[in-house]
Specification:
This protein is mainly α. It contains five helices and three strands; from the N terminus they run H-H-H-E-E-H-E-H. The chain folds into two domains: 156 residues, Helix Hairpins (Orthogonal Bundle), CATH 1.10.287.1490; 67 residues, no CATH class. Helix 1 runs antiparallel to helix 2. The chain is rod-shaped, with a radius of gyration of 40 Å.
């Protein structure tokens, strides 16, 4: 390849690497978002769970209070009715009902105490969970802003690189460009490897002197025997190799 074609190829590759960085970023983006927002979602879920527990405890407490009030009202009615009893059978029946209502009242009071304790426990946990959720939200918000900024910047670079590629594509020989695109499709970066210190800069394979001379003087595309990357000679690398 001519020096001009080599320059165009390497510039094309530089732009392609920017496009690939954006493509990889987009592919990784859902995972990055989840990593950022996951802890905040977990913290918020923990808060909402305790808030729900508090709401249930308070609702159950109100239900118990309503049942207890009804039970007490029935107890009073039976006490009043007991005063008008005329025979032993009715008296015993009423007494049995009164005892059942009293037992029911004791059970309701115990249940009510448990729901009060549950509500108090939930209330005690809320401030800490609220603080944790707010802190997690803040961290997630700041991290997401940075991620969005990075995504936007990579998108800007991607769009600029896409526009700059067209004239370079026309400068690279078709036979080279076709092989280059196959390497790009395989994701084997770099696709065109500059010779450095006598070796392929892509895989590190050291070429024999004869092959280096061939790469230096050849006008056709040559590839690395080990990795298959396009081998590129640049005059500014000459002193590093010793030719």
């Amino acid at each position: 390849m001519t020096p001009e074609e080599i320059t165009a190829l390497l510039e094309l590759q530089e732009l392609d690497l920017k496009l690939i960085e954006y493509e990889r970023h987009q592919k990784a983006l859902p995972g990055l978002v989840e990593k950022i927002e996951g802890p905040a979602r977990i913290a918020r879920a923990a808060l909402e769970r305790v808030e729900a527990e508090l709401a249930v405890a308070r609702a159950q407490q109100r239900n118990v209070e309503t049942e207890l009030a009804t039970n007490n009202e029935n107890f009073k009615k039976l006490q009043t009715k007991q005063m008008a009893v005329r025979n032993q059978i009715e008296a015993e029946a009423l007494q049995h009902e009164l005892e059942a209502l009293k037992d029911r009242a004791d059970t309701l009071e115990e249940t009510g105490i448990r729901w009060v304790e549950a509500a108090d426990t939930a209330k005690e946990r809320l401030p800490e969970l609220q603080e944790a959720a707010e802190a997690a939200d803040k961290v997630a918000r700041e991290a997401r802003e940075k991620l969005d900024a990075k995504t936007g910047e990579l998108k800007r670079i991607h769009d600029e690189a896409s526009e700059l590629q067209a004239p370079l594509l026309a400068q690279v020989p078709n036979r080279v460009l076709g092989y280059y695109k196959r390497l790009r499709g395989a994701g084997k970066t770099p696709f065109a490897a500059v010779i450095r210190k006598g070796a392929c800069s892509g895989c590190g394979f050291r070429h024999p002197p004869q092959k280096l001379q061939e790469i230096k003087g050849s006008k056709r595309m040559l590839t690395c025997e080990q990795c298959g990357r396009i081998q590129v000679w640049r005059e500014e690398e000459e002193e590093k190799i010793g030719f």
